[in-house]
Amino acid sequence: MSDPRCEEMRLRLQADLDGELSPAEAAPLAAHLAACDDCRETAAQLGALSARIRAEATRHAAPAALRARIAQAAAATAAPTLAPAPPPPSGWRRVLGGPRERRRLGAGFGVGFALAASLALAIILPGAGDLPGEVVASHIRALQPGHLMDVASSDRHTVKPWFDGRLDFAPPVKDFAAQGFPLLGGRLDYLDGRAVAALSYGRDKHVIDLYVWPQDKPAPAWSGTIKGYNVERWAQDGMVFWAVSDVEDEQLRRFVAMWRAGA
């Protein structure tokens, strides 16, 4: 018999995939997914569907005629109480008419310009989301009690097979205990619209999360700091890797260098 909270948790799945849940809101969902095979399978299916939509959907710029009609409609319904535009030079007053006509024209132009600017942003800027921010948010959620690991083990021969049948790829798993970065375990997570592998490593009292999934497109190396967390991205052997932690930047770079060297 399924958990009575399954229905409630499934309602939150899409919001979580879209990055709409705060860490506090997502923590109960993450804990539930860690314990419920049915909901975890549903989440994987939603993630795969979202990934297909993003990969196959096309974007089209709105035709100029449509943008013009929208701007005209907005101008026609604009409230006449908006502040009037500054009066034009005297030579234009006969062309524009009296004060009332000038106020109506100024208000309509202001609303139309704002709408046109919004349309331009919607058309020019792709809705790709903030993947580095999603990575950091996922790491923060994982630090909540009960969701850091689905499989807790320092043995990579235990962690790697755990992902079999749970992902559509085989993530590489390495252990750097001898270098001071022991493997702690792994879990399923959801980033970039798909199910991904998350490997957890220790460094003193800190946790490093390493997210791994296949990447067909080039993924140039990237690093940055978000909300106090250091982030490193690189591509290797057909996979993209995202490492995030609050360890010092130099320590995280050392961890990444070991991975890239195949140590």
Structure characterization notes:
With 263 residues, the protein is of the alpha+beta class. It has two domains: 187 residues, 2-Layer Sandwich (Phosphorylase Kinase, domain 1); 61 residues, no CATH class. The chain has nine helices and seven strands; from the N terminus they run αααααααβαββββββα. A seven-stranded antiparallel beta sheet has the order 1-2-3-4-7-6-5, sandwiched between helices. β5 and β6 form a beta hairpin. α2 crosses α3 and α4 crosses α6. The longest helix is centred in the middle third of the chain and has 26 residues. The radius of gyration is 26 Å and the shape is globular. The protein starts with 5 loop residues before the first helix and ends with a helix. About 13% of the residues have low confidence.
The helix fraction, in percent, is 40-55%
Count of β-strands: 7
Q: How does the major sheet shape up?
A: 7 strands, antiparallel
Mean pLDDT: 76
Number of domains: 2
**So, CATH architecture of the largest domain?**
2-Layer Sandwich
Order of helices and strands: HHHHHHHEHEEEEEEH
Measured by DSSP, the beta-strand proportion falls in: 15-25%
Spatially, the strands of the biggest sheet line up as 1-2-3-4-7-6-5
Whole-number radius of gyration?
A: 26 Å
- The first-level CATH class name of the largest domain: Alpha Beta
Report the end-to-end length measured between terminal Cα atoms: 45 Å
Provide the CATH topology of the largest domain: Phosphorylase Kinase, domain 1
Cα shape? globular
